[in-house]
Prior knowledge:
Order of helices and strands: EEHEEEEHHHHH
Structural class: alpha+beta
Shape: elongated
Largest sheet: 4 strands, mixed
Radius of gyration: 22 Å
Strand content: 15-25%
Number of strands: 6
Distance between the termini: 42 Å
Helix content: 25-40%
Amino acid sequence: MVEVDIPAELKYDAQGLIPTVVQELDGRVLMVAYMNAESLSMTIESGYTHFWSRSRQKFWKKGETSGHTQRVRRLLYDCDSDCLLVQVEQTGPACHTGEPTCFFQPVEADFGEAARPTAGPEVFDRLAAVIEDRKADDRDDSYVARLSREGGSEISRKMMEKAEEATRAAHAKDPQALAREMADLWFHTLALLADAGVEPKNVYGELASRFGSSGMKDGEG
């Protein structure tokens, strides 16, 4: 059991609940639920998220039936002490619909410049999900399915080919070509990870663990 004192300044509502935002370590907001003092204690002691269900009037552990658990990595509360933020490592999709996050339904409105779609780190997880979905596809027009059938050695060959093309674009000082070739390289990197059964978040975790270190292990270099 983990001995942690729950902050006394936390403010619960009239039902004894506090809204809780659950966030993946990569920054994606996964879901919003409610905790009370007891479920918060259960979360801290077990290291996995536990909530209070307002509809069922009972405690529930995220993933207790689906297996899509949330391993807690950090727990914070806001400046008013009336909302929690739990940063987790999510196993499987967070939403009961099968979507990676509960926030997937857009509100159609004109927000001006902000309405323009922008690509960010989340594109890796979206692409990885598409690759995983198409691995088992037997259609001849599915490039991912063909790569999957050919196996890791062919994917590795394609990666080396794309790495060489990206290097040539860099040497030619052609930024547009470099971006295209790097996109191809990253795509095949994700395909190789999928072939090996490795999720992108495992790579994120490895990279994150290197912050604050020289990146050089004893005996290297």
